[in-house]
Amino acid sequence: MGLGSTRIGGAIAAVVLATGGAAAEITSKAALGEALYFDTNLSLNGTQSCASCHDPDYGFVDPRETDAGRAVSLGDDGESLGDRNAPTASYARFSPRFHQREDGAYVGGQFWDGRADDLAGQAGGPPLNPGEMAMPDTAAVLERLLQDPTYVAAFPALYGDDVLEDADRAYAALADSIAAFESTDVFAPFDSKYDRFLRGEVELTRDEELGRLLFFSQQFTNCNQCHQLKTSAIDPGETFSNYEYHNIGTPVNVAVRGLNGVGAAHVDPGLLANPAVTDAAQAGKFKVPTLRNVAVTGPYMHNGVFADLRTVVLFYNKYNSKSAKRQINPETGQTWAAPEVAETLSMDILTDGPALENERIDALVAFMKTLTDQRYEHLLE
Predict the structure, then answer these.
(1) How far apart are the first and last CA of the chain?
(2) For 24, 210, 242, 308, which has the most beta carbons within 10 A of its beta carbon?
């Protein structure tokens, strides 16, 4: 691969291209992680990197069009389609390590089912996933690393002289350095319109302000029961997720299942797919995602079944509205499809709150658009 300085959101990467044919010098774990993050040589056919599915120009989600639209991602083989939507990597560092609270609830981790405890665990998944980057084992990854003199110099300098003598150690260092890169402010600048509003730099429009008040209200919506982490509604470090797991009744993405070979009869077990979870009552539950950059990182839900953010709000609203019109999915013109898993719905939360009229639905969407990082505001409609 050829390394050069890579511009990401106005910040120039720490990887500096040396002259005279010498290797580029990498002096920090985050800089090494950045180089690895964009390195397509870490996939079997050399077509895919971390950035392919978590593109920094598109809110760290996958912007590539497939036969399934953007609902799921294409694998390194150019044919395989996943079954879950690639979640944004922005603000991912704030998800706590996967654990079970004293009240029995599962919290945190990475991926939709929390099967990776932390960022390093997540970073180590895709290169060895046969449906993603498809490398056969850690030894094959090490062989690719040894092809690049930049890595040959950087890994020992940052992780010990003999790190490249053991494939598993080298792979752990690779994952750790990518996690270090994903822990930088490049992924979490906290500079959206909402953040600037909290700092007194801008004013919200009437709709945005109404949406903000509704969002944090415990009387008029149930949004903040899952999408508020901090105690204060004006905390500057709010990530808009409590990192819990819930089944909200998301239907099967039939179009995806018709293309990826999984088949509509398959049931995604959700949290129950996590090896650390054996309780059948966790089936169909998925991690509450951050709402940071939500307006530019669709399609939505763990399987990308909804294309539009307003549709998502209407989907939640169906649980509280008795109106026949509210029982229709505007994207299909048909009644909302049945939940993929109906037995474990979080009905106590879903039904907590009144039905919303159009003005309040639109206001919530307007507010969520203010959560878009400044560098992505051009992607808003």
Answers:
(1) 36
(2) 24
